[in-house]
## 1
Amino acid sequence: LLFDQGMLQRYVLLCAQNVTGGLRDKPSARRDFYHSCYNISGLSVAQQVDSLPDFGHPSESVVHETHPVYNLRTERVRKMLTHWQTQPIILDLS
């Protein structure tokens, strides 16, 4: 990957968390839904290289694997692709 997975995990878990919940862009910013989703997605991608956080309790810091393109849990993407691969293609060229 093109980034330091360990440092991203450390930043999200130690700097981006708001003490009352939610995640933010930087420690001086307010938490919001966009940055919460963005941070969790980045944390998930960073954890998919066998690089668990080296601080805190790992089982409390690990998130589900997400697909980097669809930003959905990978098992949901597999189910979606399996479903749509079995459906007929309907072309209405009229």
## 2
Amino acid sequence: MTDPHPISDRDWTRLTLLVIAAFLLLRLAALLLSGFELTYDEAQYWAWSRHLAFGYFTKPGLIAWLIRGTTEVCGDGVACVRAPAPILHAAAAWFVFLAARRLYDARVAFWSAFAYVAMPAVSLSSLILNTDVPLLFFWCVGLHATVLLLEKRSLARAFYLAGTVAVGLNAKYAMIYLPASLLVYLVATADRRPLLRTGATWVALLGGLAGFLPNLIWNAHNGFVTFHHTGDNAGWEKIGFKFGKIFEYLGGQAVIPGPILFAVAILAAILGWRSARPAADRLMMWLSLPILIVIGVNAAFAKLHGNWAATAFPALIVFASALLCNGRWRGLLKLSAAIGTAAAVALAAGASLVGHVPLPEKPRQLHRLLHWADYGDKLAEAARAAGVRTVVTVGRPMTSETLYELRDSGLDVRPYVAPGAAPADQFEMTIPYEPAVHGPALLVTEADPAALGIAPERIEPLGALDTRIYKAPGGRMPIYRIDR
């Protein structure tokens, strides 16, 4: 059926920008109004940003550079630390639009961008900063670069893709899936195989690896700790098939774009459904489904990491949107967009109310983002009362949060590392507490100091902080003076 009032490409573009801007403003407002404090991962990234490097214990360095950029502009407040999240997701949606418009048309591009910016996972990820945010941004830029390269081979377009991969690798190593998936697509697609005989293609496929060199050099100087950490996370040391994990994995993946788009894309791949542009459909499937399969195998045999397949979804939602956009199932596309929008508004509204209305007792995870500022104030007061300038913490969560909360106190925060123990995080590797060097300190921990290997004669109990942070048993966090 022909639309009696067709919308021009220019109007689709304007509508796309309007939708993206509306979601961005909604999320920025939520960040400004919310009383949620930083997660310990976010506090860790902020602490990294005070000491810029090309790598850190668990991740490459880009997340720290991003935070440093925004905090140099607007300060170290929670909203400013998180500001890159909604901004980069909004920009990513625009690149989804650009890629889909090249592959299909402006209508499909609008619904693809709408689907991206309204994805439930993007709505959540826009309010809490993590390394998937810059990864997905550069992946969406890379998707656009890939489409341009396949449309017309040139060194300029090859360098566009290679440069995007190079920077994206410094967000997260998963960026390597893009050139890897593109290579498999070129090998598997007969009419695209001739591209493998051109220099521009190989510049695009391999040139991005140059961006990996700074992090590789950093790792070489630090015992390849990031590689060891990533390998440990994969969980292959405890290999064993777990049938139930497959369904858990698929259920988790369906939540990321929303169940409608996920089901449509998977069913279409299995049943052979295609849009009016089957060649474009094949490209989108090759840039999404292999990633879902590879991470699914890891989930079935080793560890389940649902977010490891996040890069599959930009191409997957373009494919699903193209299938639904011009067919009799267009209502499903609109329903998915409506559900995603409602979820985005609900999340933003809920976050905005935190700090202004009492939180329910459950889910308990919400309470992990509260009471840290009060904890920091009381801890600083206790340290000064004890006559020490160093605060010692135990474990990455406590070290990260304490570093952030005591950032303007003039106190030195350092993690405790048991004698002979290997560092377990960036802070234990770079700023461990050394009694002979740092002198007396205030130890804050819910653990028994004796279990940490601290001799009783070096410890003086000082009571406990009255605090409601989730780490404090019964609302009280024990503190001790620890001497040389």
## 3
Amino acid sequence: MTAATEKSDITRSYLTLGKGVRPMSTLSDAEFAAFKTLIYEHSGITFSALNRSVLESRIRSRLRELALPSACAYYQQVLASSAELSALLDSVTTNLTRFFRNKAHFDSFSHYVIPELVKAKRSVGEHSITVWSAGCSTGEEPYTIAMLLKRYAPAAFSCQVIASDLSLKSLLVARQGYYPRARVSGVPDEYLRAYFRETQEGYQINADIRKMVRFDYHNLKHRSMHRNVDVLFCRNVLIYFDETAQKAVIERFWDAMSAHSFLFIGHSESLFGMNTKFSFLKTPWGCLYQKNDEGSAHECHAR
């Protein structure tokens, strides 16, 4: 049985269950199977029995907001409305983030990656650096990257940060660049003074930093139009995908990156066991992965 056939069978069997007459407290097994298949097909995000309650909570929230009587009624609305499908995918994404999260990564970026890129770029007469923050959430990561580029890259270099996410709600917050005081607690004072403007209730990212970042909607399940990316941050995202989806995402990242480039993934994530072309790289500050176009495919091993 193909994945498409299995999906249609699940959908047909679910839609015959009750036509919206069952009030929801928890999802039935058939409802859970239908929703998790739908979400996986459209995003690559995987739900298992271990996080079933998370999905149930998100769906209950949508039922309340839409005043719908049952999970079945909501499922039918998701099938009929691309806007509601987007809202469902938005609701199941995890938006936990903060400025300068995982200092070791940003130390490696500042003190190793940027100098290496500057040296390589100058050797071929280029003066630009492009970074992609994939799964950027509400913007803390790409703005951190922009601040570090502003501080550590030569002034003559043109630096751009492409920031993408599946959540339209998160992207709206990110584009505004405004954060309550509690959200900037991890920002060093020198960066807070240099790159933020204090307001009555929080902090606004300065215009020169905001101009360095471009926010786009992008679903990692699909191929990106980005090419020649010098550094790619995709941290704490792969853990929500199964192995098949992870491999597909990593292959698409390879295609989007320049011949000599760098990849950061989450500290609890690894390419160990995947047949990828990326090389493991350990710096004095932390670990990451590197793309070299001369390298042949090999298995990444944890050091």
